[in-house]
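Lecture 7 notes: from sequence to structure.

We start with a single chain of 277 residues. Read the sequence below before looking at the structure.
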Amino acid sequence: MNVLEFSLLVWLGSFLAGFLGALTGLGGGVVIVPLLTSVFGVDIRYAIGASLVSVIATSCAAASTYIKQGYANLRLGMFLEVATTIGAIVGAMLATVISIKLLTIVLAIVLLYSAYLAQQPRSEEDTHEPVEPLTEQLHLSGTYPTPDGLMSYHAHSVPLGFGLMSLAGVLSGLLGIGSGALKVLAMDQVMQLPFKVSTTTSSFTIGVTAAVSSGVYLARGYIDPGLAMPVMLGVFPGALLGAKALMGTKVSVLRMVFSGVLVVMSLKMVYNAFGGM
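Now the structure, written as tokens:
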């Protein structure tokens, strides 16, 4: 395989990664890392470096569309990003004293259960419940467009959601994975935000975490321009297409795709834990 063929195949895979990353709020790294390591035989460190570039590209491409269309909650996203960043620092510090293999298996089980939870129907209509004091103080309510017009929503269980975001950051720092899955689930299941708000806000926030992490990989020489360039060029248009597709896609379909990706992620993690790495 020559350089041109390699770059073209990476571009095609990255395009799919960007599409799924924007559609589900998980980030393109969910597909990029397994693709580069398993299919193309790229060293895991360089694959993660390229993955971080893809996550930044996904976030940049999708976030502008989501914010413009009124789906992503900018204020909520920046508030929760504080928790994720703190957690990522803690996770990096704990990485040398915790069994990564055991933690990987536990996380795989959590993802499988999360895929099950994502399939459970939940009404997204405004129930007119009293707004929680912390939600009101931090202005974490909002509206998002639906076929029937703008629908209002309020964030619930903010302290618990913040705590889960911290856990997502810890796992990201420990395992070198994106925390989009836990971010979406924390906002959807715990904070009871509409699913499209959860996925779009996650897409917006993961770029911040990836930007911080990419600096470390760049300093260590693990971001190869020859690999990162076709990844970025593929992810960016894929994410734009995914962002547009999300607006007209039914929530039930989004939940199904989201759950399917989680199942594949969990199986891949178990495979890696038992010698596939």
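Strands lie at 142-146, 149-153. Keep this in mind for problem set 3.
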